[in-house]
Amino acid sequence: MKQQKPWSASASLTPEALVPRLGDSLVEKGLLTREDLKSGLVHQATRASAGQPILLGQALMELELIDRKTLDRAVTEQISQLQEALRQSNLFLEQRVEERTGELQEALDKLTELNRLKNDFISNVSHELRTPLAHMVGYIDLLSVEALGSLTEEQRSAVKVLEKSYRRLGSLIDNLLFLSFDSAASLQLEPTPTQIEELFSHVIEQNQNKADAEKVTLSRKFPANLPEAQADNNKLEWAVGELVDNAVKFNTAGGRVHLTAELAGKRIEVCVADTGVGIPFEKMEEIFEPFHQLDGSSTRRVGGAGIGLTLTKRIIEAHGSKLRVDSRPGKGTRMSFSLPLYEKR
What we know:
This protein is α+β, with helices and mostly antiparallel strands. It has nine helices and seven strands, in the order ααααααβαββαββαββ.
């Protein structure tokens, strides 16, 4: 049996046009024979080829195979069945949507709880580590000033190694505490008027020994009378320090790390640029993944827990800014962001 031809969009839209397989329905109800239906379809096709398209029902009436009253009743009944089918389908879809929404909400609740437990664990472990570390620091300080007796040159060197190690451990614990904030929005900032030139001085001072050991030059540049920025001075200094630390670690002997700040409208543009190894484009997003380093091998050249840039990005985003990365392998990396000017209230 031929399929009913699709109705032209220019034709009048009637209930009959919305009912699928009208002919089959009429045959099933005993209102037409299969031969009558075939005749109606042939007549419909003939009228269409002559440029006078008509509906199947109209073709059947023209051939006097069915009357208008019977046709309208059959069409009305089929429309009613279609409406009921649509209603049942909508009810089923609404039920499925409600079920899926419940499942997703349950999964979200579990994820939120797991995230809370993770943050509590990190926070608790960090605080627990601080107690023995505080005891170690106290005794290391006593040894350093020789309060417990004179030290030989070899012992002084050993104490310096201990001092370096406990500072590193303290830094890692601070990082873990920062990591317990699961997003930039959850970081609590204490905005104050911040002098970028002073911040640069502290960061360079903190990283100078490491830079000297790696034979990397640290430099800075900013305009005179640069206005103060509105920022959490401690967290921002930590974040810029991490950028400089990475720039030194992933540099080469004879390389350079340059810090700049410049006024850009009502914001201050801060940049840390280096002449280091650079970052491949396809690896750009990976550098912000926690506990991840691009070189994950056991023989990698530089150390670190792989959370510094993750936290730096969160701190900068918490300031309402975005950490932008521009890098070319073998040419170096440029990381920049902007800060609002401090406004007196």
